[in-house]
Design a protein that fits this description.
- By secondary structure, the chain is an alpha/beta fold.
Length: 342
């Protein structure tokens, strides 16, 4: 079988690999689509100290079950359409037992600490699989992991119908947070500096403000009738976006830091958070409960048309290296998939 290996930082190559052998409480999945994430690009650039070479990247996929040996997963059989939750907790610590395996002290993320999903076949723990309905389009299923991040972050913020939501950053994750928040009944405003992404956000029906505009703050105030926002999500990972979010969150409301900054923010206005009693939340990866909710959304089809519209291009596995070049150089690309089956 073929696997996309990073033998050293900055280098990718398609290699011939051994087929996995299924053990107890394990399954072998044939990967259909695997998605390229911004975090994959950071790993290739050497910006993630947890990732050690040689490594097979990838934590977004959909595929079909080839083999499964599990007494606990009688709900799955060969041929079922599935995704894999890439967060592998120990299963016994307090966080794992409370359904927060993303905070497990010994967590291993596929595509970072252990080999990931950029390959034709993958062996996984059976408890990491979630099933799609038979009629689900695999292109929509391929977006379920980033959709999971949107679900996880919106759930963490406890977004309610009728609330005003502000999102700094109109890339893939910002848009998906916006879609889930809008599905929850919130009114959503995004901000962005990239002209192409501004137009993309508007194409998905969002109000998107140009951060470069001189009257940006006035536009935000007008949209909320001067009351600012109930839930604010910083997705860009840059200090300017964080400062915007501090300016946009109303007293007593919630700010969620989603984007991972390359360095710590220098101008962190703690007094602003204290005196306005801001709920400042962090989010890290996702838990299986959030992916289960995302899979339900895909099975219901409520966002599938939008999910498929987020796919910028699909590359065959033979052009996987070219796909990564596209993802790295095209700032307007949303989701680029690699087809490991075709």
């Amino acid at each position: 079988m073929k696997s996309l290996l990073m033998p050293e930082i900055g280098k990718l190559e398609l290699i011939e690999d051994e087929l996995p052998v299924c053990g107890e409480e394990e399954a072998v999945v044939r990967i259909k689509y695997a998605g390229i994430c911004g975090s994959d690009l950071h790993i290739i650039a050497g910006d993630n100290a947890r990732a050690k070479v040689p490594l097979i990247l990838g934590h977004e996929c959909c595929g079909t079950v080839c083999q499964i040996h599990s007494k606990r997963r009688a709900d799955l059989k060969p041929g079922d359409k599935v995704t894999v939750h890439a967060v592998n907790g120990c299963g016994v610590c307090d966080n794992c037992r409370n359904g927060r395996e993303n905070l497990c002290e010994h967590v291993k993320i596929m595509g970072t600490e252990i080999h990931g999903m950029f390959r034709e076949y993958i062996k996984v723990r059976a408890d990491r699989l979630l099933r799609f309905e038979d009629d689900v389009d695999m292109r929509a299923a391929a977006l379920v992991e980033p959709l999971t991040i949107g679900v996880h972050d919106v759930r963490r913020a406890k977004v309610q119908a009728g609330e005003e939501v502000f999102i700094s950053g109109c890339g893939t994750i910002g848009l998906l947070i916006g879609m889930v928040a809008r599905l929850s009944g919130a009114r959503v405003v995004l901000s962005e500096i990239n002209d192409g992404r501004i137009e993309t956000g508007k194409r998905f029906g969002f109000t998107v403000l140009d951060r470069k505009s001189e009257d940006f703050s006035r536009q935000c105030a007008q949209l909320t009738r001067g009351k600012l926002f109930d839930k604010v999500f910083e997705v860009s990972g840059v200090e300017g976006g964080f400062q915007d979010c501090l300016d946009m969150v109303k007293p007593g409301a919630t700010l969620v830091q989603v984007g991972m900054p390359g360095v710590n923010f220098h101008d962190f206005n703690v007094s602003r958070i204290i005196f306005n009693e801001i709920n400042f939340l962090g989010v890290r990866n996702s838990c299986s409960r959030s992916m289960s909710e995302a899979v339900k959304l895909v099975n219901r089809g409520v966002l599938n048309e939008q999910l498929m519209q987020m796919i910028s291009e699909i590359y065959p596995k033979e052009k996987a290296v070219e796909a990564f070049h596209h993802a790295r150089t095209d700032k307007n690309a949303l989701k680029i998939l690699i087809d490991f089956e075709g």
